[in-house]
Design goal:
8 strands; four-stranded parallel beta sheet
């Protein structure tokens, strides 16, 4: 594979703050997707979780775990290390309020990260913990921000895809909102297969995921999207792409792919379609952008 970015870059993993729901069970899979061609992590994923809620996986839960004030607090909890950027690793939580809601969430994450990192650096500097010449600089940059649903949409656009099928572990109500999110962005959902689960999604066997994707596929779909960061996909993506003859894009895969793009790193994980995607990282979402989306 030809590197997308210049060879002269830091060999260290890029720190990323990662906000995930309280019931996330696949931290390891996100790390797997970030590995380079030698098996080393390219992203230093710094996880934090939203507070526990005694809720089943429903539309209500998706709304609760994605409240902007909740995500802002989680971003602040991991911000003292001044990550390069932040990830909100939840599919349903980032599509449940539609495209405008996802854009507002992106802006809130980036702004909260910027303010918190700046305040943390200023506090250290003010306390004179370091000699003046070694004091950390006070940063006021807007860190990058990625949501899982935004990453799935970004991958679809990068590959020029306009029709999709969806494989989800959800019930029909959540699955329908997934389709609406993509419809708002001009991407047509032609077929969906759901597992109808209300919890413990991370325990789904590989074979169940594999069969679900095959059931979701349609001749009219240019790609199959696999929703939910709690649904294991790492071990089956390459085989599914070969069997179906089209891109199979999963929540965890595209989340890390999008974060790697912002960190100017190449993607080496499962999925030939994304490994071959060399397009430049998108411009960050500014407040004017999501305000325009909100008004449409």
């Amino acid at each position: 594979m030809t590197p997308t970015h210049p060879a002269q870059r830091s060999p260290l993993a890029v720190p990323m703050g990662v906000v995930v729901p309280y019931d996330m069970g696949l931290d390891r899979e996100l790390r797997q997707f970030s590995r380079d061609s030698f098996g080393f992590d390219q992203l230093d994923l710094l996880f934090t979780r939203t507070p526990f809620e005694p809720l089943a996986v429903t539309v209500q839960q998706a709304r609760e775990i994605s409240r902007p004030e909740l995500i802002t607090e989680a971003v602040q909890a991991v911000s003292a290390t001044d990550p390069f950027g932040y990830i909100y690793g939840c599919t349903s939580g980032s599509f449940v309020r539609g495209l405008a809601g996802e854009r507002r969430l992106l802006h809130a994450i980036s702004e909260a990260g910027r303010k918190a990192s700046s305040e943390a650096a200023y506090a250290v500097e003010s306390a004179q913990v370091y000699p003046e010449e070694h004091a950390p600089p006070v940063q006021d940059r807007a860190p990058s921000a990625v949501t899982t649903s935004g990453a799935l949409l970004e991958a679809v656009h990068a590959l020029g895809i306009t029709t999709i099928a969806a494989a989800t572990p959800y019930d029909e109500a959540i699955g329908a909102l997934f389709g609406q999110f993509f419809a708002e962005a001009g991407v047509k959902l032609v077929q969906t297969a759901n597992l109808g689960l209300t919890g413990r999604i991370w325990t789904v066997p590989w074979q169940t995921t594999y069969d679900l994707v095959r059931r979701a596929d349609s001749e009219d779909a240019e790609a199959v999207l696999v929703s939910c960061t709690n649904l294991p996909t790492y071990e089956v993506l390459d085989q599914l792409e070969q069997e179906l003859g089209k891109p199979v894009l999963s929540a965890n895969q595209t989340t890390i792919w999008a974060a790697l793009r912002r960190a100017e790193r190449d993607y080496y994980g499962p999925g030939a379609a994304l490994r071959a995607s060399l397009s430049a990282a998108p411009e960050p979402v500014e407040s004017a952008d999501w305000e325009e989306v909100s008004s449409t």
